[in-house]
Amino acid sequence: MFKAPFSFKGRIRRAEFGIYTLIAVIAQLLLESEDSFSIIFAFLLYILLLWFFIAQSAKRCHDRDNSGWYQIIPFYIFWLLFAESDFGDNSYGPNPKGLGNVSEIDDIGKGED
Question: Does residue 109 surpass a pLDDT of 70?
Answer without folding.
Answer: no
